[in-house]
Amino acid sequence: MTATTVPPAIEPAELIWRDGVPESRRFGDIYFSRENGLEESRYVFIGHNNLPMRFAEIPEAGNFVIAESGFGTGLNFLSTWQAWQTHSPSHAATLHYIAAERFPLTRQDLEKSLSLWPELRELSKELIANYPPLISGTHRLVLDGGRVRLTLFFGDIKDALDALSFQADAWYLDGFAPARNPEMWQETILHRLTQHSSEGTTIATFTAAGQIRRALISAGFNMQKSRGFGRKRSMLSGVYEPEIPPLNTPGTPESPATSVAVIGAGIAGCLLAHNLAQRGYSVTLIDSADECGSAASGNLQGAMYVKLGVEFNHQTELALSALTFSQRLYNTQAANLWHPTGLLQLAWNPGEEDRQRRFIERNQYPADILRPVNRQEAEALTGGKLESGGLWFPASGWLEPGKLCKALAMHPRINKLLGCSITQMTASADGWHLLGPDSLTPNLYADRVVICAGHLSPQIIPGTGGFRFKAIRGQVTYLPDAIANSPKAVVCGARYLNPAHGDQDQKMAVIGATFDLHNTDPSTTVESHRENIQALSAMVPQMLSADLATGTLPEQLEGRVGFRCTTHDYQPVAGQFYNSEGREVTGLYLLTGLGSKGLTYAPLLAEFVADQITGQPAALPALLAKRLASGRMHQPK
């Protein structure tokens, strides 16, 4: 990263166009063959890794993993995706494609480069629509209805090999020529490919350089030289055949799961159940309520945002990853239930104004994630009368979570058991036996179980000892449009105010939410409504009617109470469950403790837990995954 680039931004590639082909200004080399880049990709990488036949042989709910040492214009990825559509089996299966790119293209350069290939137009369009902002780190893109998962690591390949958890079935050694970009082709890096390879992993590269061939052979690859594409005399391909085969493949389950039970049908549980169903798994979704999205996820509206830290640390990186992933996922999976109106984090008091000033000074974020705005611009963006400016998040907005839960649970591979309480779990040689409070509860067995029950999770987790979870009461207030000047975008600070929504004569704006740590009352109260309105009045007094601004509440003010689950360190819990002795409990996972930011965190963490259950490449790098570990939730002895 150059001295002028401040985290989390990453320096983009600079292109030079010669004869209609993009070149790298930094490396002085072309991104693809002048003769026919697409045909070269098919010949070198798809053909010499024997992908058409291997794709066709993938079993039901199986997956195939390809790793590339660069991403560039994405041409290799798109040609592979096209081959996957042609040759993959008719049953459910997942293609994972993992690529590291130190100097990623801007969205505009990507679009211009891929416009050269009209036969890839539809795939290019979907890639460009989901292309992440230029920030360093790991980005998971879910494409083609979940049949393709692209993991882009923006940074050095050596950092990617350290951070990411995956085992490749095939390698694409690409990038600029070894003479132009020697760092990518170092012998130490080529040897480290074996840490992410299994016996039989194949490899192909356009180069036939002697030092590359010798390095790969010494790493355990059986290499051979073949005729190159076009004017190139030769290329290399091979198979990983180590003298001592690996004992196991990290991240792969001991045995394939045939059944998964997800306990809890809120936003986290429904996203996870739908995620697993997309991958070809049969899921039983269980909840004590009579319909999905009935508890904390049942509000009419929910603002989708995070509060990014002044310092760019691992906690901030996790929040940022969750924000950008959820924006992409809701755009494709939430249809008309996701409203990307934009969101303003208001600098609503001197303390927040100072925090935002320090945040802007110490960080560099692309404008498609956020940018500072003054009061006049903030008013134009939100359509409301404000007292200050703030941070504008153009791709954020609000969600109808209860309706989304119900829509996600409609997948044909999801069996719903609603009105069914689970009070006890018993491990057996075959998996887990789930029990209810009475004889009417059906006998349930599952190979894998995920507890997504929010603040009720500690009552279900098997074992002894306490857990460091907290239930927080949150009451939202519904404001009729007639008594509030509803904004056209979300405004948040001490509270959030969403745009009014609903039938023309019954439009409601939502204020959320109280933070009641020691209140267990499930009913709405006048006191909580008053607290919401007073907090909103301190933020945006000119957006309320005169009576509301002075504290006079209308009769029959409506709202809703939900109980959010958080943890002692206010970080979520997601992944394999470990008992109080630090031992892994086979087949048991947690996804809970998401607090007030559940709508933002749930999509990425559901993706991560699904990766673990299926043994597929992890959506999160190791250091971020560590922050979610379940072992930290046990009460100290």
Characterize the structure shown.
With 637 residues, the protein is an alpha/beta fold. The chain has three domains: 15-240, 3-Layer(aba) Sandwich (Rossmann fold); 260-295 and 402-467 and 569-633, FAD/NAD(P)-binding domain (3-Layer(bba) Sandwich); 343-394 and 470-567, D-Amino Acid Oxidase, Chain A, domain 2. Helices cover 28% and strands 26% of the residues. It has an eight-stranded mixed beta sheet, with helices on both faces. An eight-stranded mixed beta sheet has the order 17-18-16-26-27-28-25-29, sandwiched between helices. Helix 4 packs antiparallel against helix 5, helix 9 runs parallel beside helix 13 (401-408) and helix 9 runs parallel beside helix 17. The radius of gyration is 26 Å and the shape is globular. It starts with 14 loop residues before the first strand and ends in an 11-residue tail after the last helix. The mean pLDDT is 93.
Features:
D-Amino Acid Oxidase, Chain A, domain 2, globular, eight-stranded mixed beta sheet, Rossmann fold, 637 residues, 26% strand, alpha/beta
Write the CATH architecture name of the largest domain: 3-Layer(aba) Sandwich
- On the 0 to 100 scale, the average pLDDT is 93
Percent helix, as a range, is 25-40%
Q: Beta-strand percentage?
A: 25-35%
Q: Under the CATH scheme, which class of the largest domain? A: Alpha Beta
How many separate structural domains? 3
- Name of the CATH homologous superfamily of the largest domain: Vaccinia Virus protein VP39
Head-to-tail CA distance between termini? 45 Å
